[in-house]
Amino acid sequence: MADPQGFLKYRREGAATRPVPLRLLDWNEVYEEFSDEKVQTQARRCMDCGIPFCHDGCPLGNIIPEWNDLVRQGRWREAYDRLHATNNFPEFTGRLCPAPCEGACVLGIGDDPVNIKTVELTIVEHAWKEGWVQPVKPTFFTGQKVAVVGSGPAGMAAAQQLTRAGHAVTVFERADRIGGLMRYGVPEFKMEKKWIDRRIEQMEAEGTVFKTNVSPTGEDLKGFDAIILAIGSTVGRDLPVPGRELEGVYQAMEYLPPANRVGYGDIETSPIDAKDKHVVIIGGGDTGTDCFGTALRQGAKSVHQFDIMPKPPKTRAASTPWPTYPLKLRLASAHEEGEYAVTGEETQELVEKLGLDTREVGSVLGKRGWQVNTVELTGTDGKVSGLKGAECRFGENGLENVPGTDFEMDADLVLLAMGFVSVEESPVVRDLGLEIDGRGRLVRDGQYRAKASAPEFADVPVFVAGDAGRGQSLIVWGISEGRSAAAEADRELMGETALPRPINPTDLAMRA
């Protein structure tokens, strides 16, 4: 620990966001560049704890204090090597992960935690800029063929690990581009997809083969020596209320992908567009927030996001004590944009300087609502036009509406973002004879092995990684499980493995 008083001398600081008037006009990432010098200052806040709980908070087991100290010293190449030893894709987690490591930071007990996520992202972007990120090609080939189904973070991580171990890996993806929900479920303003394309180029140079527009059947998987399923949990939770069948009511994953395709130039306009509409988003999580920011950029008249849960406190809730991931109120960039109005001298000067019409840059009203239960969707001529709701609470008999709190509001577009409940019963699930448990997950044992009952695959080990096995979760868990499943597949094929696997609570519980 080079600066024992660093956490006392420096306050937490993160990258600034671009002005709201500008970012509402495009789909580019909202954050501005954070200088290396500022990142080094943030790294100095790390206390290099005797027991670094951030290790346990991170599902990948990132060795955070070590690369914090290397960054502080300006030893960027060594910091990059230490970071990539545990994380295949820091540029993904550095942008999309909610940072459970920061929730477990010891400094966070009585102060703001270390800005681990910003340090992580700066390290890997520094490495790309300097040309340190190169293909890592295997030193020998095993002659074993592995199929990976699904190209989200779990599938990509498993494929990269197994390719580097010398296996011939083919990744099957049913969409037309690689990336899973990172590609079509995450808006460009949260992560530009050029970062995925950059990684794909590296993986192809290493030897991984990608096949898109393929939803593989059992026939497609014959001839492989092992199979890893990373197909995600993509069945969205539905809303069983009167009016659900009306036109204009969609699942979030019906809405977000075409919006991304507009940005790619695949289509000129989205078939589900929020322009000039009153938008209501049901669900208070990240997916709902992605819909929120997307609707603002499409030019919605108003956007409301309703959460059935109570409003979290501004600081860590007592129900999530340190070092657990804290329940507290978070302001996403999309919510910041929703609260925006063209006021104040600085904003007015910017608008006038750019010659923008204020109606184009933020006169949209966006709000969040808590403890709101949707009772009914109403409409005319088969199209949704309104929503009836009420304030709700959880009582002895479960969810109940609070008497006298009923309300009605305009709603021309209703988006359901209430989470994902199950894997899809796809051809590969059917043909391999896989079992789905009561929580919608593929059944697996303590070594990530699936229970495949199809006779023709009796001698082929099948593994499950990511949301398909653990249920809807975080990107960092996807990468962690992909690495773990790859290590188990390599062990099964070769009798032993040198592939590292994260040591996290799930792995320990599965092995017990």
Automatic annotation (TrEMBL):
Keywords, in A-Z order: Amino-acid biosynthesis, Glutamate biosynthesis, Oxidoreductase
Pathway noted in the entry: Amino-acid biosynthesis
GO biological process terms on file: glutamate biosynthetic process
Gene3D superfamilies: Alpha-helical ferredoxin (1.10.1060.10), FAD/NAD(P)-binding domain (3.50.50.60)
Taxonomic classification: Bacteria, Bacillati, Actinomycetota, Actinomycetes, Mycobacteriales
UniProt keyword annotation of Magnesium present: no
GO molecular function list: glutamate synthase (NADH) activity; iron-sulfur cluster binding; oxidoreductase activity, acting on the CH-NH2 group of donors, NAD or NADP as acceptor
Source species, domain of life: Bacteria
E.C. number: 1.4.1.14
4Fe-4S ferredoxin-type domain span: 37-68
Name of the protein in question: Glutamate synthase NADPH small chain
SUPFAM superfamilies (UniProt xref): alpha-helical ferredoxin, FAD/NAD(P)-binding domain, Nucleotide-binding domain
NCBIfam families given in the database record: GOGAT_sm_gam (TIGR01317)
A Pfam family per the record: Pyr_redox_2
